[in-house]
Write a structure and sequence with these properties.
2 helices, 266 residues, outer membrane lipoprotein receptor (LolB), chain A, alpha+beta
Length: 266
């Protein structure tokens, strides 16, 4: 009788473990995904502020292109998302247009656009974050700083991408009105920087892919890509951002990122 009961308990334990193992695996995958995201954020903390020059090239499905020259300024904010300012210098018809962004960890981002032709500042609705930024394939939510709390995470697998060992991590927007159901990111195992991100639309269909190339290291710590290429698989359009002249710890303050600074941006 003892042997029979012991065998039953053993079989029962196996059944219980088989039921629990997917749950445990899922929890472990979520923890691992969050660990990877946290480490990536830690390694990019402490740059204080930065400025850079950027060329934005837009291509349509037929391959016709147009370009814009943009100046970028970013202010790191302790305990919240970063503040950023983008100023368009060319072409002439949008010269002086400026975009101001206050990223946040938990509450909705705040974004404004200054239109010099109208001489007014327009606030971007929190419900319109999936809309295209200045006609590009980057959405307004793409240009915000990617705070950890904006997503939940799940580690998927290890994979080699273009000869680079990567973690593959899914992240799911935790904020309302996102244009995405999920994003799949390939994170460089050695440097904890993004190499590629796939974006899935609200129907969970692949919408866009963002690839990063030409990484350079600044201040012996911070990695920035020279080129960011976003392709829209559903429309055939693409946008390439080519970055140069990075400078860090330039002395920018909150005053450089006020709504009044949009009108003064030159």
């Amino acid at each position: 009788m003892k042997n029979t009961l012991t065998l039953k308990k053993f079989i029962g334990s196996l059944v219980l473990l088989s039921c629990l193992s997917p749950v445990i695996a899922s929890a472990n995958a979520e923890e691992r995904g969050l660990e990877i995201a946290t480490e990536a954020d830690r390694r990019d903390t402490g740059f204080v502020d930065s400025t850079a020059q950027m060329v934005m090239e837009l291509k349509n499905k037929q391959g016709q292109s147009s370009s814009r020259q943009v100046r970028s300024k970013i202010l790191e904010v302790t305990g919240d998302g970063d503040k950023s300012l983008s100023i368009f210098d060319t072409p002439a018809d949008i010269k002086g247009t400026a975009s101001l962004n206050y990223s946040h960890s938990l509450k909705p981002d705040e974004q404004w656009l200054y239109l010099p032709a109208l001489k007014r500042v327009k606030r971007i609705s929190s419900k319109n974050k999936s809309g295209p930024f200045m006609g590009s394939e980057f959405a307004y939510e793409d240009i915000s700083s990617q705070e950890i709390e904006k997503y939940t995470y799940k580690y998927i697998k290890d994979e080699t991408l273009n000869g680079i060992d990567c973690f593959v991590v899914e992240r799911y927007p935790a904020y309302k009105h996102s244009g995405y159901t999920r994003q799949v990111a390939w994170i460089n195992k050695q440097e904890y920087r993004a190499e590629k991100i796939d974006f899935y639309d609200r129907k969970n269909t692949l919408l866009k892919t963002l690839t990063y190339t030409g990484y350079q290291q600044y201040l012996q710590k911070f990695w920035r890509a020279d080129v960011m290429h976003m392709v829209n698989h559903q429309t055939g359009k693409s946008t390439t951002l080519t970055w140069s002249d990075y400078k860090f710890k330039t002395g920018l303050t909150d005053k450089n990122f006020s709504r009044n600074s949009l009108k003064r941006a030159k």
